[in-house]
């Protein structure tokens, strides 16, 4: 237990604190929480693991994290703390309570030895100062299905069946696991998260229908329909595919939903969807967003966990303005594998920890950060080498929201 200069106490929560934590969540995220949802979060986090801030007896801030395993380029699973439900009461904002909570929580995460801490951000301006960088890129696209025609060169592999998601649970979870093991940023999905997806509670349908499912041996789609003034939209909640054929077959099935006007889905930058259509402009991007943010807690462990696309010899100076994960590191890559050690040698690259977090899963480019003066490299060929080496065969994508 610690007390801040402002008289705020920071301590670990107990079971008895949960009603107050839940109330704070409801107010901060403007969303009432059902008892089932509270039980779900408690199950994921552990009742006595949140860190809370108290002003007298009042809970005025909270943060918690879920133990996770996240895939990095090359397919290794790395332990991560998945930070969630970060709240400070509107009566107590901007007086350092989040910083005090984070200082305590990250000291615990560091002691636990996990190489990564991850989160999703309600606002983009908060977490860079704590060493987090956005590390996946996703776009929401909408297709007016009435005009969408498949390109004549695109095959018709078939193999898709319509299913009730809950009845296809073993197939869906098995495909997710295959997709997750190869996709940087994707987390192992615990059973209780699956339980909630298949339970499909009315409170989480956003005014849409219950979930529909399309299943292929190597992919699946979960979607729901929403009726509006201009017809019905099929909103894809999850599209997971591990082969080109299943990707094509599932899109063919979605585009075959005759009475649906519009299909909405979330895609990663290298999704081949536009190339499937005779008119690629029909895939209209309506928003582009970050999902997963990464703070590297242990630079050598994190950099050695992933694979690289070419040999590399570089000394990097990594600045951590929040904790002490930074320093100078020699990164030597041979045949895809890295050895990363602390060094005193002059750096060829200087960057902040949040920028390294953004490069880590291959979704962002060192050259673009250099152009923004957020990364310094000794010469242009070092930038090229970094960008090539840090690339990833598969686009990074978050597996499930938390
Ligand atoms: C975001 C939130 C937790 C911030 O709590 P807080 O106690 O006011 O934050 P602090 O006073 O400790 O601020 C810590 C730092 O973050 C900055 N910061 C806080 N909120 C910010 C925001 N919304 N945008 C940009 N910077 C922000 C502060 O300026 C401060 O910077 P500094 O320490 O470098 O000077 C609080 O506003 C909140 O509960 N918001 C609603 C729920 C939410 O969005 N939670 C985050 C979920 S990801």
TrEMBL record:
The answer to keyword Flavoprotein applying to this record is no
The UniProt entry, under SUPFAM superfamilies, shows: Acyl-CoA N-acyltransferases (Nat), SCP-like
Residues reported in the UniProt entry to bind acetyl-CoA: 86-88, 94-99, 122-123
- Sorted alphabetically, which keywords does the UniProt record give? Acyltransferase, Host cytoplasmic vesicle, Transferase
Q: Where is the N-acetyltransferase domain?
A: 8-157
Which Pfam family is one of those matched by this entry?
A: SCP2_2
Which InterPro entries does UniProt cross-reference here? Acetyltransf_17, Acetyltransferase_Eis, Acyl_CoA_acyltransferase, Eis_dom, GNAT_dom, NAcTrfase_Eis, SCP2_sterol-bd_dom_sf
Q: Which GO biological process entries does UniProt record here?
A: aminoglycoside antibiotic catabolic process
Which GO MF terms does the UniProt record name?
aminoglycoside N-acetyltransferase activity
| The keyword Ligase is assigned to this record | no
Where does the secretion signal sit in this chain? none
**PANTHER family reported for this sequence:** N-ACETYLTRANSFERASE EIS
What is the protein's quaternary organization?
A: Homohexamer; trimer of dimers.
Family listed: Belongs to the acetyltransferase Eis family.
Name of this chain's protein = Enhanced intracellular survival protein Eis
